[in-house]
Amino acid sequence: MTDCLVIQTDFGLSDGAVAAMYGVALNVDRALKIYDLTHEIPQYNIWEASYRLFQTITYWPENTVFISVVDPGVGSERKSIVAKTATNHYIVTPDNGTITHIQKYIGIQEVREIDEHVNRLPNSGHSYTFHGRDVYAYTGARLASGKIPFQEVGPALSTESVVKLPLTEAVLENGTIKGNIDVLDVRFGNLWTNIDRTLFLQFDVKYGDTFEVTIENSTRHVYKNIMTFGRSFADSHLGEPLLYVNSLDKIGVAINQGSFAKAYHIEAGLKWKITIRKVVDISYN
Q1: What's CA 200's distance to the chain center, in Å?
Q2: How far apart are CA 18 and CA 38, in angstroms?
Q3: Which listed site, 8, 39, 102, 167, has its alpha carbon 20 to 30 Å from 25?
Q4: For 27-75, how does the pLDDT look when each residue is reduced to its tens digit (9 = 90+)?
């Protein structure tokens, strides 16, 4: 293992929950290197937890152990698992859909259910509300430090048996691309879609081309306007909207030095749809 442990939760940092997880991990092995992915996942938002793992995981060294705790089903019959990815990373998490994007776009080699009779913080057996501390931090630290091999996490599960969130693919039909807004670039308010750059380039596009962009949710149209495709934000004027390729090689929507999400009250997830149509000729009178 790499002795690297990366943690994401929806706990925030206003109380001691994350610090308690750190403490459990360091009591397993004080040489562990512990890092935060984020603790600002919106409460109970398994979809975003899944996406943030996908956004991050391949940039870490092989054998890095990730802990993801967004767990609205804590204390229920849902399983606790460790998944080994096709890139030789490990994810310690509830079996509630958190590995959906990883499984779809990176691949899962093997999954094991955590045997809580062995891999659980000693003397924590009567608590059923903080598995992040008692099960995931403890197991993740033991795995990252080499105290246990992957095989000792618990019994193997079928990779097809784990819980998956519904995913849709972007499609190009009749000169129009239809996709989803997968997640927000939270700090800056940009929209990150599920439209791959390679699909978008089938429009035979070049920087400076113009597109009609429509955004809707399950109840109404939210936005419709013309914008340009730029290499970066510098390719547009202050306050102008643009399309661009984001850091995951997918199409993003932004306002130069503004928050697109806040300006138009746009959120992310399966119900948020985006349509992009190339505008061949625009003339202004």
Answers
A1: 22
A2: 11
A3: 102
A4: 999 999 999 999 999 999 999 999 999 999 999 999 999 999 998 878 7
pTM: 0.89
Q: Are 171 and 202 in contact (CB under 8 A)?
A: no
Averages of pLDDT over runs of 10 residues in the chain (285 residues) are 91 94 96 97 95 96 97 85 98 96 96 94 77 94 96 97 94 94 93 96 91 94 94 80 94 94 93 92 54
Query: Where are the strands (E) in 62-220, listed by range?
Result: 65-69, 80-85, 90-94, 108-113, 156-157, 171-173, 176-185, 190-196, 210-216
Does 4-157 carry CATH code 3.30.70.260? no
Direct distance between the N- and C-terminal alpha carbons of the chain, in angstroms, rounded to an integer: 65
Kindly list the domain boundaries of the chain, sorted by start residue. Answer: 4-157, 171-278
Query: Could you tell me which residues are beta bridge partners of residue 212?
Result: 226, 277
Closest by CA to 269, choosing from 167, 117, 175, 157, is: 167
As a whole number of angstroms, the distance between CA 108 and CA 162 comes to 10
CATH of domain 171-278: 2.40.30.90
Distance, CA of 11 to CA of 281 (rounded, Å): 50
**Nearest CA-CA partner of 92 in 49, 29, 33:** 49
Which DSSP helix (H) or strand (E) runs through 221? strand 221-229
Instruction: Decide: helix, strand or coil at residue 4.
Output: strand
Q: Do domains 4-157 and 171-278 have the same CATH topology?
A: no
